[in-house]
Structure formats: C-alpha cells, structure tokens
Amino acid sequence: MNARCGKKSIDSLDDLYLESIKKKNNGADYKSPGLLPEEEQTPLNELNLRLSADKMEAILRVGAAERLPALPEVETALKKLGVNTGIDLEPLQKALASPVAGEPKAMIIAQGRRPGRRRTVIYNELQRLSDGGWAAGGFKFDFARLPALLTASEREMIAHDSVRVMALKPGDIIAHIEENFEAEPGMDILGKEIPPLEDSMPEAGQNVEFDHKDMVLRAVTYGYLLVENEVFKLLPPIWITPDKMQAFYINLPQIGGPRYPEPEDIELLLEDIGVVEACRVKFLIHKLCQSLKDGKKTAKMVKIAAAIPPKPGRDAEFSLEIEMDKKAGELRADGSIDLRERNAVVSVNEGMLVARKKLVKKGKNGLDLFAKTIKAYDGRDLKISTDASIRVEMEEENALYYAARTGNVNFISNSLTITDIFKVNGDVNYETGNLDVKSALVITGSVFPGFKVQARGNLEIKGGVENGAQIIAQSDLIIGRGIMGSDSRIIVMGNLHTAFIQDAEILVRGNAVTASYAFNAVIRAFGSISILKGQHKKSGRAAGGIICSSKEIQASTAGSPSNAETTLAIKPEPELLRKKELIEDKIDQCREGMVRISRTLPFELTHEDEIKSFLAPLSAEKKKPFLKLLTIFNKILKEAQSLKKERRQINEEIERILEDARIRITEHIFAGCTIQFGDHKLLLREEMGPQIFKYQNGKIISQ
Hints:
Elements: H1 2-5, H2 10-24, E1 48-51, E2 57-62, H3 71-81, H4 90-97, E3 105-111, E4 117-123, E5 127-128, E6 134-136, E7 139-140, H5 145-150, H6 155-159, E8 167-168, E9 173-179, E10 186-187, E11 193-194, E12 197-198, E13 203-204, E14 208-211, E15 216-219, E16 223-228, E17 231-235, E18 238-240, E19 246-250, H7 263-273, H8 282-293, E20 301-306, E21 317-320, E22 330-331, E23 337-338, E24 347-348, E25 353-358, E26 366-367, E27 373-374, E28 385-386, E29 390-394, E30 398-403, E31 407-412, E32 415-419, E33 421-424, E34 435-437, E35 440-443, E36 452-455, E37 459-461, E38 470-473, E39 477-479, E40 483-484, E41 489-492, E42 496-498, E43 501-502, E44 505-508, E45 512-514, E46 517-525, E47 529-531, E48 541-549, E49 552-558, E50 566-570, H9 574-600, H10 608-615, H11 620-660, E51 662-669, E52 673-677, E53 680-683, E54 691-696, E55 699-702
Parallel strand pairs: 4-12, 13-17, 28-32, 33-35, 34-36, 35-37, 36-38, 37-39, 38-41, 39-42, 40-43, 41-44, 42-45, 43-46, 44-46, 45-47, 46-48, 47-49, 48-49, 48-50, 49-51, 50-52
Antiparallel strand pairs: 1-2, 2-3, 4-9, 5-6, 6-7, 8-16, 9-15, 10-11, 14-15, 16-17, 18-19, 19-20, 21-25, 22-23, 24-31, 25-30, 26-27, 29-30, 31-32, 51-54, 52-53, 54-55
C-alpha cells in the first residue's frame, strides 16, 4: 500500500479506490479491468459475469467449488450491466437441471448480432501490412524513395540508388471491390447498432482509373506503382535531365513477375509528359523494349528522347582571290626570307576576280524536349564597302568582287577599291619635291633626307628611306632597302614590310614585318611585330630601342652583348587607353561636383531620414533650391556609377588583350632586356635561351 501511494499518477488513485472496494465487500476478490484479458470485463458483485471488449458477449464463469447462480440473480446482474439484447439463459438452465459437481463452467448467456460486410477490397499481388505498409512477393515496398529517384537533380543520384518496384501495364487490375448492399447492421448486447463493415475505398491517382462498372482499380498506362495515403498512382519510369535536353528510361528491379513496356507504352508516356514527337528517338525506344523482352542485360538508364540541337549559323568570310601577302618575300623553311619573291604592288586587269565573300548564314533554332525554342547562333555579316571600281555579282552563297577597271588593288578597313598607280621613276629629292598622291604610289628609288611622301593607297619604295625622311601611307607600305635615321618618321595605316629598321620611329596600325633586324628603333604596331631571320648574320635580332605591339612580338634574338637597353612591350591600342583616361577624368569631375554639393547642403546626403527631417518643416518655395541640388547630385551620382561600370569593362578588355598577347624569342635573350605587359615590367638580369613570355594573373611568366 505504501509503495502504491508513493506513485504520483492516476494509477495510484485507481489502486486506492479498488482497495476501498475490496474492504467494503469484506475482502471479496475484485480484479481491475485493466488486469483482465482484453476481451473480458469486470464481474458484477459476487457473480463472475463478464462482458467482452466489443460488447458482443456476456460470459458467466462458475468455479468448481461455487454454486450455480439462480436465473433471477443472473437476470438482475445482466440488467445492472445494461445487457438487453441477445440474452440466452438456456445454457444456465441446462446446467442447473443437471449440475456436475467439481467442474468449473463458462457459459455465454448473451450474444450480439454480428454486422454484415458491405464492402470488401481484394488486392491483386499486394498485401497490406500491419504497420500500414505494403508488400508483394515477400518484399516490402519503399514507396518514399521512388518519387525522389525519378525526380533526381543529378544522374549520379539515380546510378547510385536502387529501389525495387512493381511495374504495371495498361489494363492491369490493382484491386477488385466487392459490395453487398443488403448487408445488415449488427447489434451488441447493450442494444447499440453496429453499422455494416466496409474496407477503406482505394483512390485512383496518376495514371490509374476506377471502373465503376466492373468495380476495379485499373492501370491506365505503363508505370511503377506508388501508394500514398490510400491513393494508388503509376509513376512514369522516365527521368528528364534538368536542362530538358534528354529523357531516359529508368530500368529498376521489379518485385513479382516482371512486366516490361511496349514501344507504344513509352511513346504514350512521353506524350503525356509533354515530350514532343520530334524529340522521341524511336529506334532507341524499340531497341530498349526488345532488349527487355528478350531478357538481355539492360542498363539502368537508357536514352529514349533527345532535344533537337540548334544549328549555328556561319559568319561571313571575305578572302582576296589574288596574292597580297607575299609583299616581304617568301618565307623559307628555315625561317629566312627570299627577297627575290617580293610581290610588292598587286595590279589587276579589268574583269579579273579580285575577292570573294561567303555570305552570312543564319542559324537554325533547336527545340528542347518540350518544344521550347533553343536559340541558334546567327552568323555575323561582314560589310565590305566598294566604289565604282568594283563590280559585285551575287551567287547563291557567295558575293563575287570583279575589277571594273585596271589598276592597283587597295583593301583596308574592309574597303575594297581599284586605284590608279602613280609611279615615280628614281628618287624623291629636290627634282621631285615632296609627294602627296591620292592613289597608290610606286617609287623606284629612295626617299632622301628631309623629304615627305604621302599616299592614299598602297605605297612601295623600292629603295630605302634615309635619315630625316617622313612617310605617311594610308594603306600598306613596302620598303625594299629598309629605313634608317633617328630623324625618320614613318606612319602606316595598313601593314608595313621592310628589309630592316635602324634608329627610326615607326607607327603601324596593322602588322609590321622586317625581314632582317631592328636596331635602336622605336616601333609601335597595333597588330603583330615580326623580325624575321634571313641570311644576314644580324637578321632576326631586336637590339636596343623599344618594340611595342598590341598582339605579339616575334624575333630570334633580343638584346645585344653590348648590353644595349632593349624593351619588348605589349600594350593595348592607344584609343582604348585614351578612352580609359577620359573616363578617369570624368569620374574625377563627378567626384568633385558631388563634394561641392555636399559642402553646400546642411545635412548628410547619406542619411535619408536626416534629409526628410530637414525638408519637412520648410515651405515649398524654400525647399526648391535644396531639391534642385539633390536632383543635380543624383544625376551626377548616376553618371559616376555608369562611368565606373564602363571603366571596369575597359579594364577587363585590357586584361584580356594582355593575357592573349605573346612575346616569342626563338633563340637567345641577352641580359639587360626588359619585358613589359601593360604597366608590369620584368628586367632580365641573366641571359636566357628560347622563351615565350605571357601575362597571367597579374604577373609576367615565361615558358
């Protein structure tokens, strides 16, 4: 008793109550209902009369040494327990009529009426487990993993997971439903009506139908069975890649007899999912179904549909049908130049084919699995301008450019023309004076010191350029004997080809090629600079001076034993650098403007609440000057932000140019040379062999 009283729970109070009952009944044995078997209830007073848990039976138990109770006693006990239905005292009457001493008795003296069964659900192959799960063929289903596997975000998740499934084909019966509308309700012995029994009705979900006529749950398509909260579904065994470019059949191990799809089953599934017919790979679908049918080993993932990839367009391509690249001579196998093969001035006769342009071709858009357009790359056109000297004829895929007159071919900045050739026999000196011609120009001699030559078209000087001469070529420039003199100035808007360069200053918009050497010269080219190795012992050498390109520098030797200072530099085109400088200036101006406005206003521009507090008590008229300044400030701020974005883009472009550029020395580099990329410089303190210098991650590296 003390131990029970120590428990702090409802059970302790119940025990206390039972003890008091026991004492009241002079110690008669009384058992708690909780201690009896589930199907029995507590006897009433001295009679051992119990009701079953479902109130469908009343059982009288009489011990071997106990007397049989009289019928009125039992009737009274039943009445006190509320039993009013199904009372049958005949077993007690028989026992009273023929008592058997020393034998315990248990008699059912009241019995309810069991309810009929109105609905019975019979599942084919499936078994419902006591824990609410489902099984078939001795295997329990793991329905939770199946949807996750079929909607995985990565292919590896499917490859590394394995779940057993039940496959169903169209028309397969999942369950039969039997209904008995004549089923009667039951009644327990207390007179309470019990409704007819009904199995829970299964629900039809995805790809499953309920046939009310045949009372069956039936598969509509092929798929893997999934049961969620009494809802039966069939999941398509298809996985779509996240980019919607491919569809795969997922071949999982099956529980029970395997069922495999027919080609039309897969086609229907793809159609239901929304995969367009054009993307379905029919021969792969047929091959898959046949492989499964034949029992061949089949991969877990088999491609059955693929997007239609876009077909990229073609950029317009322009090519000259005449040789214009051999102006410096022919390149020998050993890297030297044969100057006898120069093709300095390219002349054509009327009617000759000069150039050809492959016309731009538009791309063909593709389709993803769900008919969404995949944009194709449309080729970029190349605009070629011409004048009356060129006749253009169109073919299906080409534009053909013919010479409409005899003359010199001039092609620069995507402009193709035929120009007259102005020829000077001999040197440019006091007899000829300075030359300024609006066509191509050929000078058979040299340009003497102090004289100036300008040509709108190609310019060829078969001799040399002597110290103090100035040459301006609006197209290509070819100089047969080279350029000399620290006072010589050469400006070329096209490409430059010369035998050598010594001491002069050269500016070339295109590529610069010297067939021998560059000594103590300042050469700036927006294209590449090549110092080729010829037959002369000094050829291929860049010694002294500054050689600067926006793309590439190539020479066999850099520097000299005399330690002449030689700089090989890569810098972006000056227009880009100038544009950056102008933007920097504008950003500074914006900054200064914002500072001036900030000093004028009596509040902090960064504190919105402070601005509102200051302006709130002011009249509209007094607010005007402040609002005007704020408007100007915001305008300057937006301009500064736009300029900073543009500066960032230019810096990225400069970085790209530097990273794409190369300085190539194929034989030897003398100590004292400086390698430069942008503002980054590298002084070489020791001699080196062949090297390729490049700019990477903010550093100059060599390999």
